[in-house]
Design goal:
It is a single chain. The chain is mainly beta and about 325 residues long.
């Protein structure tokens, strides 16, 4: 694959997270001390001030929730929620531990916002009332760094040392039941399928990438995807659920066929490890993030050899 263009940030302003809105119009990049918004065509929109601490993670609210919201986590233990239409902060949520807030994610039904901190806890807030008390879930042997909701919002997974799972019998409430899992491996990242309520992808520190089927009382390894030689730090399903993208410290990003487990494409155009990956809503454009503070946007036309650049160099 040919060399691509990139958005390059100062190395002193490290990239900590990236997210794409489900309407396909916005790209959010979490940087040290702020978050920057771009249009899908690469035009800079605005900077959201994160205070004196960096944004660990950024996530957009699901399609259909109005107005479009962006949640950002921070090293001061706070989660800020922004209204993307007027660029205003509508909520400043604080973790119980007042420690670093890591992953933050909206439930696909838009009713919950979950945050993981470095105090072995997950906090849940209702999106219809930011002033309502949060609910705390405790689990795992270490702090959870990543969170993922199933596409029906009934399961929540974290990679707290070993994988932890919670089941929401009623997806309209914050009541959750812990599930005893068999997975005792240390995972760096995890994500549920965008269309399959039970399919979960996990990337591990040894380069392993596993697809598992999980439910309210079950957990079965579906298949293992072989290829990465170092830790997998980022995974993302395409909107149709047929492809899986993975970003690794072995300096590659791989595209996989979910049904067969075959590697469809390997992007290897960088001398630094990749730690973030996200699909745009059309499923044919991919965002990749590297450890030298660069963000690349790839347009993959039906997964053939044509690559277009959405972003010019800064």
């Amino acid at each position: 694959m040919t060399c691509v263009r990139e958005i390059r940030f100062d190395e002193s302003d490290s990239v900590y997270g990236v997210a794409t809105s489900l309407d396909g119009e916005l790209l959010a990049v979490g940087l040290q001390k702020n978050v920057r918004l771009f249009t899908r065509h690469g035009k800079f929109v605005t900077t959201l001030d994160g205070g004196n601490t960096f944004a660990n993670y950024v996530t957009f609210s699901p399609a259909g929730l109005s107005p479009l919201l962006l949640a950002t986590s921070s090293s001061d233990g706070s989660v800020r929620v922004w209204d993307c239409s007027n660029r205003a902060c509508v909520a400043n949520l604080q973790s119980h531990s007042f420690k670093s807030a890591y992953s933050v994610v909206f439930s696909p039904n838009g009713r919950l916002l979950a945050m993981a901190s470095d105090w072995k806890i997950v906090q849940l807030w209702r999106t219809d009332d930011w002033n309502a008390p949060s609910v705390t879930l405790v689990g795992g042997s270490t702090w959870p760094l990543r969170l993922a909701f199933s596409c029906d919002s009934r399961l929540l997974a974290t990679n707290a040392g070993n994988m932890s799972l919670w089941h929401f019998p009623d997806s309209n409430t914050l009541t959750a039941v812990a599930i005893d899992t068999k997975d005792k491996t240390v995972s760096y990242c995890l994500v549920f399928s965008s269309v399959d309520t039970e399919l979960l992808a996990c990337g591990s520190e040894d380069g392993g990438l596993v697809l598992s089927r999980v439910g309210a009382s079950t957990e079965v390894v579906d298949r293992k995807l072989q290829g990465h030689e170092r830790g997998v730090w980022g995974v993302a399903f395409s909107p149709c659920g047929k492809q899986l993208a993975s970003a690794s410290m072995d300096q590659t990003v791989r595209l996989w066929c979910v049904t067969s487990g075959v590697c469809l494409r390997m992007l290897w155009e960088h001398s630094y490890g990749a730690f973030g990956v996200a699909f745009l809503s059309n499923g044919k454009q991919l965002v990749t993030v590297y450890h030298d503070s660069t963000v690349r946007i790839w347009t993959l036309c039906a997964w053939h050899d044509r690559v277009h650049h959405l972003f010019g160099a800064r």
